[in-house]
Every structure is written in structure tokens, then in C-alpha cells.
Amino acid sequence: MTNRRKRRNQGRFAGIPLSVMESDLYVQLNNLAKILLYELCGQYNGGNNGYLSLTRNQLKERGINSPEATKKAIENLISAGFITRTRQGGAAKGKAICSLYAINWQPIDEKRDKPLENYFTFKGAFGLWFKERSNKIPMLKR
Description:
alpha+beta
């Protein structure tokens, strides 16, 4: 029993539920869209959904260097219902702001000290989407 406890990973992990990975819409995503989904999941800490970002600098550090392909992959994730854009990036008051995103199978965490101003007020999880919109494609058995 002691050896088992020693082998456990105590660090954070980027988890995607099997119900998401078994959806036909997930299977149809291109590789870059899947990578970006994992990048967003890696940022999620249980209390920051809705405040996840995919900036050019972040992606460049992670080896993703194509802004146009990235933009298209993000739009694919949004249209397929995997993520929601909670803030549109651009220039505000002479300052550049980044777009923010939420993963749709977790509740959105709107922070009182950093409200998502001029945007939607988010509540609850969006997990019902997977039951209603997607056909199941089972994972490979081990």
C-alpha cells in the first residue's frame, strides 16, 4: 500500500472528461484545436473558468506560431461548443486586452473583483450540451 501512495502524482493536471473526448464533435476537431483545448484546460484551476486566455505570447512560448491557424482553431472550438468567449479582445482605453474563454463542461467563475464587464453574466455549467448535441464515439478499450 505504501508504494502505491508514493507513485501518486500530487501535481495539477489538465483534465478533459471522457464524455467530451468521446463526442463526435471532438473527434472531428483538427489537431491544433485539440492542443488549444488542452492549453485552456491546463490553465483552469477550479476557480478561474471564464478567465482563461490564449494570447500570442503564451502560445509562442508553447511552440504555436501561426496566428491565423490559431484564430481558426479557436473559432472551431467555439462553434462546436467546447469553449465560450467570455470577453472579446481588442483595444480599450488605449490599452490592448486579450480575449478570455471558458471551457463549457465546468461552471463559469465570475469574479467580483474582476467582473466580465459589458459581457454576459455567466452561471452554471454547460454540460448538457454534450448529451443534446453530440453522438458518442467510444474510446479505444485497454
